[in-house]
Amino acid sequence: MDPMTPEERDAPIYGTFKELYSRGFSLDIGICVFVAGIHIAAIALGVWAAVLAPGEWALITGIWALSHFVLGSVSTTLYCRL
After folding, report:
1. Are 42 and 23 in contact (CB under 8 A)?
2. Confidence class of residue 82 from pLDDT cuts 50, 70 and 90?
3. Residue 9: CA atoms inside 13 Å, Cβ hemisphere, count?
4. What percent of the chain shows pLDDT beyond 90?
5. CB 3.0-4.6 Å disulfide test: which of 5, 9, 20, 41 passes with 14?
6. How does DSSP classify residue 30?
7. In this structure, what are the phi and psi dihedrals at residue 11, rounded to the nearest 5 degrees?
């Protein structure tokens, strides 16, 4: 078997969302609600923490945000490369 070139390896599997859905991909309403809820909560709590939360929470909020940024970046990178 011939090894793949980097261009072949990194090429998209599907060209359009229509092609993706025509091959059986679907989104469950529960997943959509969960993802939307988590993102809305993160934005609302981030604004609250930055504007209204007590000052001593700033360090905790910063560590929480930084850890989620790092974990999200690492997990996305590992998922894409492994």
Report:
1. no
2. low
3. 8
4. 6
5. 20
6. H
7. -70, 145
Token pair of 54, please? 């007590």
Q: Which residues contact 50 (CB under 8 A, 6 or more apart)?
A: 61
By CB atoms closer than 10 A (0-12, 13-18, 19+), residue 22 is: exposed
CA distance linking residue 36 with residue 38, whole number of Å: 6
Do 21 and 12 contact (CB within 8 A), yes or no? no
Query: What pLDDT is attached to residue 1?
Result: 63
Amino acid at site 67: S
- Please give the structure tokens belonging to residue 9: 């390896």
**Mean per-residue pLDDT over the chain, rounded:** 83
